[in-house]
Amino acid sequence: MADAEDVSSEVFNPGPPALVFDFLTDGAKLLRWMGVSADLEPVPGGRFRVSPNGREVVEGRFLEVTPPHRVVFTWGFVGAGAAIPAGSTTVEITLTATRGGTLVRLRHAGLPPGAPRTGHGAGWIHYLERLRSVAEGQDPGPDRLAASGTQHG
Known about the structure:
The protein is an alpha+beta fold. Helix content is 24%, strand content 33%. The chain contains four helices and seven strands.
């Protein structure tokens, strides 16, 4: 159940669920739309480690991996004093086949009080749009959030 503190996004992706799922669980494919380095082990308890911009590192663990419909992992930034500590929040992504593609639903839960929900929501929308581009076979171009050094998602 969604909490008022959660950030949620829902977008249509023209790719089938299996294709979108691969872009969420294969490190090389994930880097086509988010991040500059990735170390993923997409099994329950496996590593989720991504550097969105070459300066910060997001780290967590996969909690659920159900091909091609659902991925759940913990999320947070590595380092002392991180506003969202490594592994302290949860990202749930559900993929539902629809006519002509996939409905992608993302929920980022457990954000600490005071975390900027608007910024997190905008960050996830930004990345889900980049994911849509790669699923369509397009190059999403340079990542403006990675270049700006803004904390993601």
